[in-house]
Amino acid sequence: MNFLLFQIVISCVWFFTSCVVDFVAIPTVFRELHALEGGVIWGGQIGVNLFRQFNMLEIFWAFLLLAVTFFNNEWTSKLGKIKNILVGFLFIIAILYTFYLSPHITAAHKIIMTPGILPGGIDAASGELDFFHRAYVSVEKIKVLGLLALIIFQGISWKRVLKNGGAKVC
How many domains does the chain have? Predict the structure, then answer.
């Protein structure tokens, strides 16, 4: 029961911080900086720095959630299997962000920010930045929906645990 409660807390913290970053912090930064001269470039740099740090936090939450899920050992029920698969999927997303998408976005942004780059180089880097940024946003939507689904399934499990008087039920 304590493992399940811990899983719910981790999932909710990850979900709500993702929503705050995605729907409040980043849009506010870009909206405010867009009005300034050179604001888009600075907004890009702030986004790169913010997401690099947030990705490390997501790796921590994903690993912690994976570890707690492993120790909870819920492979006996259909609901437990679904939750375990979702946790594994979310862990893969966190790895993908940190070690693939973010480094490509950072590299393309650095090329664009480098003085003296020829227009063809800037165009190529802009295309790469646009592609990886769209991929990041799409994966972010999937992650948020995955976290929401996980929280719903964890809530169903929690309801079953309470209904059975605290006995472990997946």
Answer: 1
